């Protein structure tokens, strides 16, 4: 991989130095109005927060079908998969759990978070980008504006509106593993009402590959994931609007939750209905937005925890359980902005109610009797268990959150102040604040500073799990706090741009799994601070129709923390590539490089590098033909495993080998 990096740098060095025709470099960026940094449009050049914009052109260049595929190209994010093939992300040196709860995702300002676990990615493992015209990523502590769990970054998907899609757009892609991704986008307008509807259907079919688990059992296996996502945006000229986002997804796992080959009875079914109905209006210097919502989340999962050959010794086919939960999430909120001669004052209040109103468990064993010695497990006929034996009681959480924002913008400098109070009936109160400052050193150089505190609220799963001798809940958990200090420098020329960001994140009361005795863990707040320090560097050079780009993330140090793989993160990650674009076609070849991973209670993961290639043909404005090869050199992709659960020989992750995608998009 080092040889590839050296060759890559040698190739781009003379191009960076070469004389090129002076062309405007991303003038669109300079004129762009960014929404996510302040909850209202602000010019990109004036924002004091560190913001990264991914345009539709870049999404098409990489042919990223969903958010996971996009974040792989950004060095500050680490996309990985668990042993049961669930995808997750880490950021800024922190791997997190598979819930990825420290990074929050929004669609047109509406959070996609499952309020029971604080995760946007458990709601939808395929956050489609087919209807997205740009992605706005705001870095740093954002709890003071967006609420709990917005700790490391906020990702806002800005979708097409009725003016962007004239009538109808349809597309499909399929790969050599028979995975496929299809979408449909339709705009409409009738009188004063306009809207757009999009639908995405995706199937991920892992190839039938030979697999050996950590116990030595082997099998040809394949995972299967199905995602149906639909999104409706309505807007009336009077100011009323409606956003409705729905998810229906199925996962079938060939492994159990600790990575052992079982049978095909393990599955998860999830549904989510997320909405916002509101009214916006401008009256002179006053702008206000009043909204309400009633979200609903549902999960049903079955899991077999018994190995077939061992169960048969006790005349069992399986130790099998089916869990069912439903959550309703009503709420109301306001956001008001007033322009004054001395700056802009904004603020609002959110009332968010989370009710776990349905929780059932059916099983052929008593969960509290679980043991590595199967003879001690209390086996019963498969039946619905009484409330005393289920894994989680019905619980409710109410969050009241007043917040205030002050922004002052001048041509050469600007700053933001944010304050917020989050009152949770079951955890307590959290006060957060942030300060962001921008100073224009020259026409092309800008200095920014972002600092403040963010908090993560413990989830229902971390607090209220019971009757589980393997992982116990903890009702006494406190907020996880993150104090951040992020200075940065940005350079924006006509054909060259770059940035350098230093991050120092200090975690206090970090929520992790503490091992009590062998085979038993409990969620705890870590008693010592955890400090993560690192640097992110990015560079882009435009040369006529070519663009050379690269990014690098280096984690300098992480404080040790016991019994966790949350910090099992690459010491460095490198991204880079070369792209070429003309009116009728474009191509891109890019590289992902990952250092080895040694930190945490894991088996050491070797470093690796991946090369990807994509080609886009546009014979006419209404037609696109796509071709993409992931992992062109068919390198092994390996993710962290607990030492006790890792196979003796770490093999490449199934489904991450070389694969080819071909696609078609037609606009009418």
Name a few traits of the molecule:
mainly beta, 668 residues, 22-stranded antiparallel beta barrel, Maltoporin, Chain A, 5-stranded mixed β-sheet, 56% strand
Short description:
Residues 46-150 form the TonB-dependent receptor plug domain. The chain has 668 residues and is mainly β.
Sheet with most strands = 22 strands, antiparallel, barrel
- Estimate the mean pLDDT confidence: 87
Structural class: mainly beta
Could you estimate the helical fraction of the residues in percent?
Answer: under 10%
Radius of gyration: 25 Å
Shape: globular
Architecture, according to CATH? Answer: Beta Barrel
CATH class: Mainly Beta
The named CATH superfamily: TonB-dependent receptor, beta-barrel domain
- Number of distinct beta strands: 37
User: How many structural domains can be distinguished in the coordinates?
Assistant: 1
Low-confidence residue ranges? 4-25
Number of helices: 7
Under CATH, the topology is which?
A: Maltoporin, Chain A
First-last Cα distance: 45 Å
Strand content: over 45%
Membrane topology: Multi-pass membrane protein
GO molecular function, one term: siderophore uptake transmembrane transporter activity
Organism: Desulfurobacterium thermolithotrophum (strain DSM 11699 / BSA)
Keywords: Cell outer membrane, Membrane, Receptor, Signal, TonB box, Transmembrane, Transmembrane beta strand, Transport
Description of the molecule:
One of its GO terms (molecular function) is siderophore uptake transmembrane transporter activity. The chain has seven helices and 37 strands. The protein starts with a helix and ends with a strand. A hairpin with a 2-residue loop joins strand 19 and strand 20. It has one domain: TonB-dependent receptor, beta-barrel domain (Maltoporin, Chain A, Beta Barrel), CATH 2.40.170. The chain has a 22-stranded antiparallel barrel. A five-stranded mixed beta sheet has the order 3-8-9-6-7. It has a three-stranded mixed beta sheet with strand order 26-30-29.
